Amino acid sequence: MSTVLAARHLNKYFYDPERFRVLSDITFEVQAGEFVAIVGKSGCGKSTLLYLLSTMDTDYEGQIELAGTLLTGRSQDYLAHFRNEHLGFVFQFHFLLPEFSALQNVMLPALKLGKYSADEIEARAMAKLSMIGMADYALKPASKLSGGQQQRVAIARALINDPTLIMGDEPTGNLDKANTDNVFSIFRELASGGQTIIAVTHDPDFAAGTDRVIEMSDGLIVP
Amino acid sequence: MNLRIASQIARTHLLAKKRQTLVAMLGVTFGIAMFITMISFMQGVNQFLEDSALDASPHVRMYNEVNTQRPSLIDALRPGGFNVTYHQKPKNELARIKNGLTIADRIEREPNVLGVSPQVATQAFYNNGPIQLSGTISGVNIERENRLYNLEKRLKSGSVNALRSNPDGLIMGTTLAGKLNVATGDKVTITTPTGSTRVLRVVGTFGFGIGTIDNTKSYANLPTVQELLGKDPSYITDIHLKMSDPLLAIPFGKVLQAQYGYHTEDWATANTAILAGEKIRNMLTYVVSITLLVVAGFGIYNIMNMTVMNKIKDIAILKATGFEGHDIVAIFLLQAVFIGFSGGLLGLGIGFGLSYLLSITPFDAGGFISIKTFPVIFEPKYYVNGLLFGVITTVLAGYFPARKASHIDPVAILRG
Ligand SMILES: Nc1ncnc2c1ncn2[C@@H]1O[C@H](COP(=O)(O)OP(=O)(O)O)[C@@H](O)[C@H]1O
Ligand SMILES: [Mg+2]
């Protein structure tokens, strides 16, 4: 087993309205193929931690290493390229491009990566959408989809480049039981295929099915 | 390859918000249309004023500068002595250019000379019944004069041919004719300073649009004026010439003066005041154009800044999913190029339309200026500059906010 994520002594502060320590000395590792859940009370810093780990927030103390690459201190463009290739991220509020169709939203990161031709990318994106039960809505603009539908498109988008790591901030928060179960089994399958999944969740059943649960409280990992 | 995604995203952005795209385009359109209209009109006015003044003056005028001062005999004999001479009479020197016709023919054969008109100019009194006005009369070969000054186009009545076929004909400045209360076909009595008198018939009237000429000048046939002054058929006082390029005339005038020994005056010296006015008007045009372009530029900057800021969330999402800074910049540059180019083209069209409307708008200058509509210049250069300005400004106005937006941390926007 190889370490795919290493977080060392992460500290994060917010300065608005006053200096406030959100994360205190977070240190942990995740192995390749692991399916990890992060749980904790609302406001304890789960989203903040996930943003650091996903390299989208670079304002922190400590070190982050993903897929054997030290990412702390890298340039914006380097990190963007790294995210494109190695990271799939599902936001709590989905964040699709509203003027693009569901299919285009899923295709864009792959078009950017440029590993496959446009036709292949379209076929792959359609496959991801059917897997998640969204094939019928492929051509609908993202802004015309319901919250749950947008969340499923966001999951498909996170999977399109077969990333090493998939991170989700309550990725099933807007889904019904049937769809949650579907997403869970997809994640399980990806993990058995060697991809690593880290998901913040409030769903005890979801957490119970993962390989490991990391519990947070007030910016600390509960041992 | 990345450019294709960028252009696809740019197109989606432009098409999704058609109204906003149109408003941005119109911002560019407005600035460019104003610029085109203003500069076409202002330069049209400049050109008109310059042309109407300079067209009526020869590029070079050669004449015998009559110098009536001369040293008294005693001064010549005993220079430096205490000499006092009372009431010395000025020398009687003629304004004649010796061999004027031959000189004119020789100058005409020089390269770059468009035409030469040898002539006799004299002061004259015009009498019609009780009305007596002073003015000048030029004896010309009307064909040669016509080639220089395009008289045919400046005629208000009558014809150039009528003068050629009538030895007693006279083509009179339109304002002068008005003051004398004569029209084509009427007779006028001419009295020269030498005292001779002759009755001539008005066969045409002309207007240069310049008061000092239209008010005082008439054209008659060269032999008629020579006879009137009691001179022989070789008597010439002035040689006017025009060249292919007015700028060539300035050195050429000096060459002629050295070659023939007669005084020459070029158009620039003769019209110093007009040229100074020209410089001031050109400066004014620059100031107005630059002001207009700066104002338009700020408008365009605001619009592009808004276009980028409205899409800041899309930018954050694209960055989060792996798009790099230069992809973001490319997306907005493409939009800027489209907005600048299409808005600019529309601006050129509207600018042209407005200029055209202005150029056919009747304008009553009260006969003082020979003009029926507003003077407007249609110069391709202005259109090229306008479009270049529109595209470059829009691209710059899109580039700076896009570059700034491409540097943000995606979570700075996306964090709840
Ligand atoms: N942009 C911000 N500025 C200041 N404080 C913030 C900001 N974002 C989040 N916080 C605070 O940081 C803490 C952790 O937030 P978050 O990571 O979103 O919690 P969770 O996802 O665990 O619910 C909360 O107290 C929240 O109020
Ligand atoms: Mg959260």
Automatic annotation (TrEMBL), chain A:
Pfam families: ABC_tran. InterPro entries: AAA+_ATPase (IPR003593), ABC_transporter-like_ATP-bd (IPR003439), ABC_transporter-like_CS (IPR017871), ABC_transpr_LolD-like (IPR015854), MacB-like_ATP-bd (IPR017911), P-loop_NTPase (IPR027417). One of its GO terms (molecular function) is ATP binding. The keyword RNA-binding does not apply. This is ABC transporter ATP-binding protein. It comes from Fibrella forsythiae. Residues 5-222 form the ABC transporter domain. It comes from the Bacteria. Keywords: ATP-binding, Nucleotide-binding, Transport. The keyword Transport applies.
TrEMBL record, chain B:
Its main location: membrane. It comes from the Bacteria. Pfam families: FtsX, MacB_PCD. Residues 21-244 form the MacB-like periplasmic core domain. The keyword Membrane applies. It is found in: Cell membrane. The chain crosses the membrane at residues 21-42, 283-303, 328-358, 382-400. Signal peptide: none annotated. InterPro entries: ABC3_permease_C, Lipoprotein-release_system, MacB_PCD. It is a multi-pass membrane protein. Residues 287-410 form the ABC3 transporter permease C-terminal domain. Keywords: Cell membrane, Membrane, Transmembrane, Transmembrane helix. The keyword Membrane applies. Belongs to the ABC-4 integral membrane protein family. LolC/E subfamily. PANTHER family: LIPOPROTEIN-RELEASING SYSTEM TRANSMEMBRANE PROTEIN LOLE (PTHR30489:SF0). This is ABC transporter permease. It comes from Fibrella forsythiae.
